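Appendix B. Chain record.
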Amino acid sequence: MQRSLLLALLLPAISSAAPYPYTMSGDKFVKMMGALTSRPDDGDAYMQREKAYSYLDGVRDGTEGTVWCDVGEYKTPDMAYEVADKIAKLPAPERKKNASLLIREQLKRMYPCHQAGSRP
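Structure tokens predicted for this chain:
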């Protein structure tokens, strides 16, 4: 009984101490975007880049019009390479962070909305 009570009291403290495990870091996004340039005939590298495109599209869809505003200039591949280049230039500790937050921040800087929550 006492062990169960002690475990029940400690579990919330243990679980809140660990950071949420995100699926992709900024470094991983940059690596996935660059895989095809270093191995142009590699099917796995092609798939990695396509996954990075899809990841970017998810962030775009979830934040466009509220965090950043699309000006219709870039398609996913162009935007992905530009965002990956900007993330690659961040300090190493920053690149270890959640890629979705880093992508969102880059989109916000690159394509700000004229007025919060509005499209140009």
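Further analysis of this model is presented in Appendix C.
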